[in-house]
Amino acid sequence: MVPSPFMSAATQHPFFLKLENTQATGAFKLRGALNAVASLPSDARGVVCCSTGNHGRGVAYAAAQRGLRAVICMSNLVPQAKVDGIRALGAEVRIEGVSQDYALAAAQRLVQAEGLIDISPFDDPLVIAGQGTIGLEMLSAQPDLQHLLVPLSGGGLAAGVACAAKAINPKIKVTGITMDRGAAMDASIRAGRPIIVPEFPSLADSLGGGIGMENQLSFPMCRDLLDDVILVTEEEIYHAMQVLYYEDRIVAEGACVVGMAACLSGKITPQGPTATIITGRNVDMYQFTQVITGQDIELGEYTVKGQPYAQPIA
Fold it and tell me: 25, 99, 133, 195: which is deepest, by most CB within 10 A?
């Protein structure tokens, strides 16, 4: 975990970045995947999961360490760079439908048909515990943290981090942050039950996907442990990606910067030492180059109008 001088100045409070983009597979998802795969029985035939990319990469890596077959099911919204990265680790890839719900259904069919063991990207106690080690490390490194800003998708990361952090400091504030289009966990919390929402292309593609209609763990944990959920726009994500690159010299996915985006847009006003998680670096580099050079980004039928990065005035 490193300080961000720019964000500290912008928020007028110490601001820290937890650099999960430096993991071997490029994202925090490796933690939960390794924990789950390490706990499999010795006679396991193989594993399967649905993924928006980074969980699949973690499962593929962990399965390879044990010599297990891995099948990763993803929708056609997953960037090709993430698909290629998973195949490079030796896993089989299945592209199913236009949302993660289709990928989840495909994974469940493989459990029934081929006896593979499903490793949920978020609704699994071992996965949640693995992601929760991030919260332990953050508070170990900086015990006076008052606010954690956690990217929110299916909730495995947010549930694990909130559980760990609040066990150490019950007064710490934990906010889940996600994009404002297709935010399944936010919509489910507001509805009081898991619901299906449409998915859209996003700069924060890792935060896409549903939470599962039979969600048993991450939904109630996020509902009960998160102090708030904040939504940010594609334009706010675009700007925050530029800030992270130009000010902190970090290449990262759009999903990583939602905490920064919430602060820079004024949707969150830190009141003390604050930290967010830079969750991964497995970004489409062509799109990333477009962002940092201020070009327009086409997200399906939605266009994010480009803006060159304006250097702050000293």
Answer: 25
